[in-house]
């Protein structure tokens, strides 16, 4: 067994037993605040790294990749952002089923490649009025497909967890009056809800490395909306 898989399995078990520390701040779950919000699920799908030379000798996240997507700049909600695959529940679905289905649609990863480890407590995204249930999952063989949801996803990103945890790639992303945890990637920042969630999950797993939270990246509105990701992103 991959050494970091045990940590993921344990985290899912802690969540099932009610021993997972909830995410606080702007995304803290409240039954009252969630009234009228739509329900959705996102998939945290981990797989052994595709990067040569990445060791996996301890439960530290080393030797693992995580699947993310870069959303189209043409979308109404969170355009251009790097996010976890996922989306709203369809009739008759629970959050786990929705997360796996949406991940298939957005990344091309077949559900039969995904082993669900379990959900963690729900969180809120007040800006778009969603209650989001993150779902931990594992795959030994996951690979992104060639066909993804048209008009929603620009790229499927398979990201080494070690690169996300690198303190040199971390900063507090400031957008207007909102601060969030940030992870720098070649095509932009993982920030906002996804940045805060990943920061919290990595901390709960014991994988997080110290980084300078006083380092601030000031993000402008155009960058936040993914301007420049498509040649004609501003012409629609």
Describe the structure.
- The chain has 236 residues and is of the alpha+beta class.
- It contains 5 helices and 12 strands.
- The chain has helices spanning 3-16, 95-107, 161-165, 192-205, 221-224; strands spanning 38-48, 64-71, 82-83, 86-88, 115-119, 123-125, 130-138, 153-160, 170-175, 178-185, 188-190, 216-218.
- The strands form 2 sheets. Strands 1, 2, 3, 4, 5, 6, 7 and 8 form an 8-stranded mixed sheet that branches. A 4-stranded mixed sheet has the order 11-10-9-12.
- It is globular.
- The model has no long low-confidence stretch (mean pLDDT 89).
- Residues 36-185 form the Nudix hydrolase domain.
- Keywords: Hydrolase, Magnesium, Manganese, Metal-binding.
- This is CoA pyrophosphatase.
How is the biggest beta sheet arranged?
8 strands, mixed
Number of strands: 12
What count of helical segments does DSSP give?
5
Q: Radius of gyration in whole Å, from Cα?
A: 17 Å
**Residue windows where pLDDT falls under 50 for at least 5 positions:** none
CATH topology name of the domain at 3-162, in short, is Nucleoside Triphosphate Pyrophosphohydrolase
The whole-number mean of residue pLDDT values reads: 89
Distance between the termini: 49 Å
Shape: globular
Give me a quick take on this structure:
The chain has 236 residues and is of the alpha+beta class.
